[in-house]
Design brief:
It is a single chain. Helix content is 32%, strand content 17%. The chain is an alpha/beta fold. The strands form 3 sheets. It has an 8-stranded parallel β-barrel with strand order 4-5-6-7-8-9-10-13, surrounded by 4 helices. A 3-stranded antiparallel β-sheet has the order 1-2-3, with no helix packed on it. A two-stranded antiparallel sheet has the order 11-12.
Length: 341
């Protein structure tokens, strides 16, 4: 009887151990992503994000669709894009497979309250992470998008968000030690924010400082030794008012000029930052009015730093039009991203 109980105990212990090891295992094809000394690493090799924010909503629609994923990936490869940032997780494994086959990585963003769909509040984000953590396309997990501008979402106290962020990051580390956790902050987080969120491995920052983000790299260097990246940067291709050499109305030259200056700063300070996600891939006609036509207007928090008119015309942010026509900014991005440096 004692031998039988010992045998059962041994088998049970072995089963628990195997389950524990499996929960922390990484598949042969998956990459191990980590952070060290201000750098983002894939399989111990430094990785610099040459990225784009990607939310493909087609003309006449208001919801994201991947109907043009094959066309989009070909254009991304031409441009030298190696990373896309999505604002909602991609649930279609066929789409993730195509992205991985194109040699592109995904920054997957989770919202706090998405009605129980892959969100932090319900805990359903963990279902997604456990399902896709071994997928080749995954680069890192990103929690929240400039929530610091919205304390009203957290009972009027933004510290409630930072507490949730700290807890969620800790939980992700337990379930997936092979991909780091980030958060996309509106502008530069301060020391109090960083002290409250020590489980965040690296920081994304949505930065609109006209066409000159140089100072944020210096400020971050003095504040933290963790890696950082620009989770959003860029400008729209519409001038609400004339400014210097840029005329009022649709103006691709203004967008291209500002993007050139922004990317010049990003690449100059690559010893401090881990790259950039330019906002955005295509124009989104659903943002400011009738989704069948391109409207002027829209609103974004803290958008007064948008070059060169201080106004975010939300339907004109693409480096491509909604029909995938290439704007002048596309060629600027392509030149920077394809440089061998």
């Amino acid at each position: 009887m004692k031998l039988k109980l010992t045998y059962i105990f041994t088998i049970t212990l072995l089963t628990i151990t195997l389950c524990f090891l499996y929960s922390f295992s990484v598949s042969e094809d998956a990459d191990v992503v980590s952070v060290k000394d201000r750098q983002l690493l894939i399989n111990k090799t430094a990785y610099f994000i040459k990225g784009i924010c990607y939310n493909p909503v087609e003309k006449g629609h208001t919801e994201r669709s991947f109907t043009n994923i094959d066309i989009d990936l070909d254009i991304m490869k031409e441009a030298g894009i190696n990373t896309i940032r999505v604002y909602l997780p991609i649930e279609e494994i066929s789409v993730l497979d195509k992205i991985a086959d194109a040699g592109i990585k995904v920054i997957t963003s989770f919202g706090y309250n998405q009605g129980g769909q892959n969100d932090i509040l319900s805990g359903s984000y963990l279902d997604y992470i456990n399902k896709f953590k071994n997928h080749k396309a995954i680069l890192l997990w990103e929690l929240g998008n400039e929530y610091n501008y919205h304390p009203e979402w957290f009972d009027g106290d933004i510290k409630n968000w930072y507490s949730s962020l700290q807890s969620a990051a800790r939980t992700i580390h337990h379930h997936d030690p092979y991909h780091p956790v980030a958060s996309a902050h509106g502008e530069l987080p301060d020391g109090d924010v960083l002290a409250a969120t020590t489980n965040v491995d690296l920081w994304g920052m949505n930065v609109y400082r006209w066409d000159n983000p140089e100072n944020i790299f210096k400020q971050w260097s003095a504040l933290s030794d963790k890696p950082m990246y620009l989770s959003e940067a860029g400008s729209d291709s519409y001038m609400t008012v004339a400014n210097h050499e840029f005329s009022k109305g649709e103006n691709e030259k203004a967008q291209a000029h500002s993007l050139n200056n922004i990317l010049d700063d990003v690449f100059e300070y690559r010893s401090i930052n881990s790259g950039v996600l330019v906002f955005s891939f295509t124009d989104e006609l659903w943002k400011a009015g009738n989704p069948n036509i391109q409207d002027v207007g829209g609103w974004a928090p803290a958008s007064s730093g948008v070059p060169y008119d201080g106004t975010a015309n939300e339907e004109y942010w693409g480096i491509l039009g909604v029909d995938r026509d290439k704007k002048e900014a596309f060629y600027v991005l392509k030149e920077f991203y394809n440089k061998k440096n």
